TrEMBL record:
The keyword Mitochondrion does not apply. InterPro entries: HPF/YfiA_ribosome-assoc, HPF_long/plastid, RHF-like, RHF/RaiA, Ribosom_S30AE_C, Ribosom_S30AE_C_sf. Transmembrane segments: none annotated. SUPFAM superfamilies: Ribosome binding protein Y (YfiA homologue) (SSF69754). This is Ribosome hibernation promoting factor. CDD domains: RaiA (cd00552). Belongs to the HPF/YfiA ribosome-associated protein family. Long HPF subfamily. Required for dimerization of active 70S ribosomes into 100S ribosomes in stationary phase; 100S ribosomes are translationally inactive and sometimes present during exponential growth.
Length: 187
């Protein structure tokens, strides 16, 4: 079961909002075989101009799903985020099934989808002083550069650090200003 941790900024999270978010996020469970102790982190924020922003992050063992949407209607923002997350899941599942069908244990993460869903194609400073304001620690997972680019795009980041499955070294993929991708390999 996917449990929701909902936090509001500049807004009180009412029971109606909480129930709506939990219901929508709960529908994502159908895409997975097993989701023990999975938490969805949901941030709901409103601004002075009545615009709202909803962020949903679902960190799992082999994949992190993330979507963020701004909209005048918070309920519509939740719906748009769920659509984004479903596209990410389908895209990742299609890639896993195509490339790693028999040799990768990640294929067991996803439940079977209808064939039409599998075939669906997505179309989708100041340098005066250096101050580190946040630090993160994470385990590097073995993958190839294509998987790393997919993960980077799902997270909405401009770079992604990973263990290269082929070279067994640490590598970085990044988005270039021209919209293409670059790869940095370490020796």
């Amino acid at each position: 079961m996917i449990r929701c941790e909902i936090r509001g900024e500049n807004i009180e999270v009412t029971d109606a909002i909480r129930n709506f978010v939990e219901e929508k996020v709960g529908k994502l469970e159908r895409y997975f075989n097993d989701v023990p102790n999975t938490h969805a982190h949901v941030n709901v924020k409103t601004y002075n101009n009545k615009m709202g922003k909803v962020e949903i992050t679902i960190p799992m063992k082999d994949i992190t799903l993330r979507a963020e949407e701004r909209h005048d209607d918070l309920y519509a923002a939740v719906d748009l985020n769920i659509d984004k997350l479903e596209r990410q899941i389908r895209k990742h599942k299609t890639k896993i099934n195509r490339k790693f069908r028999e040799k990768n244990p990640e294929a067991e993460l996803f439940a079977a989808l209808a064939q039409e869903e599998l075939e669906e194609n997505d179309t989708n400073g100041d340098d005066s002083g250096i101050e580190i304001v946040r630090s993160k620690e994470f385990q590097l997972k073995p993958m190839d550069s294509e998987e790393a680019v997919l993960q980077m795009n799902m997270l909405g980041h401009d770079f992604f650090v990973f263990n290269d499955r082929e070279t067994e070294g640490t590598s970085i993929v990044y988005r270039r200003k021209d919209g293409k991708y670059g790869l940095i390999e370490t020796s």
